[in-house]
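Final report, Chapter 2: Outcomes

The project's central promise was a pipeline that accepts a single protein chain and returns its three-dimensional structure in a standardized token representation, suitable for archiving and comparison. That pipeline is now operational. To close this chapter, we reproduce one record exactly as it appears in the project archive, with the input sequence first and the structure output second.
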Amino acid sequence: MSKIDYILCYKIYKPYLKKFVCNRLKEELVEDIIQDVFVILWEKHNDIEKSKAKTFLFNTAQNIILQKYRYLKKLNNTKKIENIDIGCSCDQDNFETMNYVKLIIEEVPDAGKKCLLMYALQGYSYAEIAVKLNISEAIVKHNIFNARTKLKKLSKYDF
């Protein structure tokens, strides 16, 4: 990837990447994440094909988001899972969607909700969740499956 391709990637994908990150983290972290993603892209620009840049950007952003969740979880180990901010208020549609998601998540039984939030938002594996909640890995898988099934029934979105 050339310097010109890098600049074009920045101009083309930055707004989409901002929306992607904004939907997953608090607003004050969004610009830092985007900057980190483009720094990593620049460091590896000689190894990345122009056609694969978009995939690289979004995968890198997702990995950094998961790292942030894990770091914040370790930093605030006493914080309850239910208090995690699962979105930001970048625009009115996003705000309404997040309120809708929070409302339907309240309908999921507590065991399934806790497992699903730990898996989907905090990036824990089934085994890590099982250890933290002192239950078997099979029960974790079962709880997450049931939670997703309940969300699909209640929602117009695909979980």
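Archive annotation: DSSP finds seven helices and no strands in the chain.
This record, like all others produced under the grant, will remain available to the consortium after the project formally closes.
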